[in-house]
User: Which sequence fits this backbone?
């Protein structure tokens, strides 16, 4: 079976068969490895440079995910944040501006 | 092509890919050491590393989601290895030609990184979670210029009436450099540079190794991995290095030696495969080895800024020049 768009294509069933074959290869490698460790000992503790993990776990909040983005794009984001005045009139005004620009682009093209 | 023939070819490519991957990994480490004035490890060191990992305990941390933690290395391994069979090798079409195109290859290249992030999140270690978050942020930054470079080439081929334009065999058989005008040529050069800039980040190599960053977060998303699970990630990295270098070659330097030298038949195919391996080595050496020796690790915000601003703008400029080239030169 092959799914095509005219310019692109792929055969999902072929990929699944291939993936199962490669999974078998990976499993064969996995079986060669040592699979035991000392369960219930300190080995199972996550590494935290010698510190003990707190009772609540060492969760790093998801909000940190975008820290790199926010930090890199701070000049742009600070301008975008300034647009968010909280007034509905401002938002509707921006909506109208974007609609007019979009219509102009569509009409001209 | 019969199924049995395809199976033999697939086995040949996978075994050959494994051997070449380990060889390039060894060469990368040896040459990086020589560039830094060190002797470096022997070429067989990557193989010894995997053997050593197989002898180590395969620990699953108490805080982990065990099935997800164990599944992540398999997912990375499967997607990296399957990607190898969608690449044209020398003058030969991909083994699975007709069953997967450039878009599939881009997805398969993205999944090992996602699997690493998934494993990091599943381990429950704060270091690994920070590393996984960095991996995701880095992916969100470099995928855009990568997609622009790939789509730009396919789009220009489609405008020239060459299709199916997303087929890697079609792209490799019709190098755009000779089909476009001066504007398109400059545009292609921009896209080539953008793709080369993305290559070390795809492989999480210095200066883009922020998800691992041993000296900061103790190995990041791999901090809890050991033994055979880490070996599977290592194998996935070995193969993914070949795949990303192979993609660069297929998109931008697909030329062979057999046709210009007038060598036909099996001899020509062997010559083209050898030349393909030289080109792969060139890409790995200049885009990975030299870069990781020459630069120090960047911070996460610096990586995001580098890819979302100059690299994306360069890729967009390349795409725009290809569009202008179509307008000037015609379809």
Assistant:
């Amino acid at each position: 079976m092959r799914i095509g768009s005219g310019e692109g294509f792929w055969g999902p069933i072929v990929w699944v068969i291939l993936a199962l074959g490669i999974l078998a290869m990976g499993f064969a490698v996995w079986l060669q490895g040592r699979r035991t460790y000392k369960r219930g000992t300190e080995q199972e503790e996550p590494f935290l440079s010698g510190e003990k993990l707190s009772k609540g776990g060492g969760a790093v909040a998801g909000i940190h995910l975008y820290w790199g983005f926010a930090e890199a794009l701070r000049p742009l984001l600070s301008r975008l944040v300034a647009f968010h005045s909280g007034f509905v009139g401002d938002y509707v005004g921006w909506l109208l501006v974007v609609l007019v620009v979009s219509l102009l682009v569509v009409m001209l093209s | 092509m019969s199924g049995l023939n395809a199976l033999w070819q697939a086995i040949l490519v996978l075994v050959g890919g494994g051997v070449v991957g380990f060889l390039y990994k060894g060469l990368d480490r040896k040459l990086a050491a020589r560039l830094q004035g060190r002797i470096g490890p022997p070429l067989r060191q990557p193989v010894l590393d995997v053997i050593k990992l197989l002898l180590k305990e395969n620990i699953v941390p108490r805080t982990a989601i065990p099935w997800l933690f164990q599944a992540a290395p398999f997912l990375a391994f499967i997607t990296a290895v399957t990607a190898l069979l969608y690449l044209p090798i020398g003058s030969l079409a991909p083994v699975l030609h007709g069953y997967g195109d450039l878009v599939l290859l881009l997805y398969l290249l993205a999944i090992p990184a996602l699997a690493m992030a998934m494993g990091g999140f599943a381990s429950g270690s704060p270091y690994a979670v920070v590393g996984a978050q960095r991996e995701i942020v880095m992916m969100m930054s470099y995928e855009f210029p990568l997609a622009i470079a790939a789509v730009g080439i396919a789009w220009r081929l489609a405008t020239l009436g060459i299709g199916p334009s997303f087929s890697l065999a079609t792209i490799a058989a019709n190098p755009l450099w000779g089909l476009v005008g001066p504007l398109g040529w400059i545009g292609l050069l921009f896209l080539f540079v953008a793709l080369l800039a993305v290559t070390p980040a795809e492989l999480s190599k210095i200066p883009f190794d922020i998800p691992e960053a041993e000296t900061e977060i103790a190995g990041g998303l791999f901090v809890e991995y050991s033994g055979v699970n880490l070996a599977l990630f290592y194998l996935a990295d070995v193969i993914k290095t070949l795949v990303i270098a192979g993609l660069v070659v297929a998109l931008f330097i697909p030329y062979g030696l057999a046709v210009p030298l007038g060598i036909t038949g099996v001899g020509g195919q062997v010559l083209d495969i050898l030349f393909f391996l030289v080109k792969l080595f060139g890409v790995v050496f200049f885009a990975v080895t030299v870069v990781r020796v020459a630069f120090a690790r960047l911070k996460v915000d610096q990586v995001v800024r580098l890819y979302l601003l100059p690299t994306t703008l360069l890729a967009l400029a390349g795409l725009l020049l290809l569009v202008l080239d179509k307008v000037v030169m015609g379809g």
About this structure: Chain B has one domain: 3-329.
